[in-house]
Task: structure prediction
Amino acid sequence: MSAPRYNKDLRADVQTSISASPAARVHRVEWKKVMEGSPVEINPSFGSGFKVMTVDEWAARWKNNEDFPACLNCNSKATKEHYFVQTWCRGRKRWESECLCLGCHKFSWRSYCDPDFQTPEEYEKQHWEGLTGKA
Result:
């Protein structure tokens, strides 16, 4: 038996958007610096300090998303995923993915959430409110 895949058996639409800057906060500041030609921090795996980097150099350590390889803007397959988060709870799922296109330098955002998805905290709150009669 294989493990369930995050992008299969979807019960709602995948939300998409295209942007000139990342929607995910994790790389917003660095992206602005790369586009301005300002130095960005070197990945600690390679050394220390700062360096002016090209887009290709900055994104070199990111992987391709084989499930969603195409850029939403230009349909190029030259994309690198810089952000991916998935949460599974009681068989329900929520995920977010953002890829940078190395061709047009646009960010493709995709997100999904099962209609009845609840975080563990939301589930527990609903459960205890039901037991205590608070709603």
Q: What stands out?
A: The longest strand covers residues 79-89. The mean pLDDT is 91.
